[in-house]
Amino acid sequence: MRREEIKNLLLSFTAEDFFKNVDLHIHSNESDGKMSPYEIVEQAKAQGKKYIAICDHNTIDAYLSTNILREEIVIPSVEFDCFYKGVLIHILGYGIDIDNKEIKSLFATSHNAKTHNFFRLFHLRNPKEVIEKINNAGGVAVLAHPCCCWCFNLDTFVKGLVKMGLEGLETYYPYNGLRGMLKFHSRETVIKVAEQNNLIKTGGTDSHGLNLL
Ligand SMILES: [Zn+2]
Ligand SMILES: [Zn+2]
Fold first, then answer.
1. Where in the chain are the domains?
2. Closest ligand to Cα 147
3. Mean pLDDT across 69-84
4. Alpha-carbon gap, residue 54 to 77, rounded angstroms
């Protein structure tokens, strides 16, 4: 899929899609999720999902070790741990070319750096490099769960990332568990910031379990 096509596809989704038939944030057992990539795809198809993205931490092994990209509903994706302005953030890359050589240097090589919350702290990337490499790999860079960005002014925070080439905010996200406790901004603020900066609004469940929502 070309970069423009993936952008247009992301732009075509509505808020209702994200709570019904599109889930652009799922973890498989290639990172800290419980289901295999195949099980995720089978369950998503059984539920009638239109599109899904498996976004494992710092890895695209879900795509390299399987042939799930043959399925039309699957968008090849990744979620990188980054450090920006003193804050831990996650950046999602949608529609990346999994054979791109440049982006390979960003992927984790150890199992811990794909799975373990603590060990992933040693695998933090520079957001500028991450966004550039996502873009060069034909993907679209999106800030994950922005309500959890520990900053005073989300608009200023996001503008810095937009200058680096960020194109979207994960707007429709459930904020369950720990993410709910770390929530510093409201969804209304995220929608406002997305609109002020002309950003794509994406969404996903961040499902790690045995059942997709
Ligand atoms: Zn995340
Ligand atoms: Zn995640």
1. 3-203
2. 1
3. 97
4. 6
